[in-house]
Amino acid sequence: MSILSEQENRTKTMPVMVEGFYKSFRQFSNYDNVMLVAGGTGITTAFSQVTSLLFQDRSRTIKLIWAVRSPAPLNWFSKEILYLRSWPKSIELQIYISQALFENDCGAKPCSPLDIEAGVQGVVGSQALDYGCGSNYQLAFITGGRPELQKEIANFIKHASGSIAICSCGPPTFIDRARYTFVHNMYKSDYHIDYFEEPYSC
Hints:
The protein is 34% helix and 19% strand.
């Protein structure tokens, strides 16, 4: 009120941002193609969404990208990772470790799948990761570095056949990158496409 009292006509134009409506659970079951990109603890929301879709009697394309700073989160989420890997024909899973520096020292270059495997097994244990996968199992779905969200989202939209839903779950900067990429690719599909986000502080 003190600001208005200082104005000649007691009016002032101010920028306002309105958010909402907030919903507890997204209805991704209505889409033919669902992509979820999660950063850090945002995987908890993404995982619940994906598992819900896996149990539905409908054929759809599901892709989940999870970005973490170190292999440590894979320790407390190893059972969930194995569960998703048990649905190889239903979901495409990709995990990125941005600070993937292990005992063999990958240097500044992204670690190879074998380097990642050695480091991750040191965190979650080889028995857990090798369970039911055979002796030749490699963690090819885990790579070093950060995900190229612009490329990943653009390719998903380009190759999708049918309605599309893209959801980002994670810290604000992570969501900003996903939203920016979505906006610049949303008109490159002939199908209905929607974007959702679930922000987290860590």
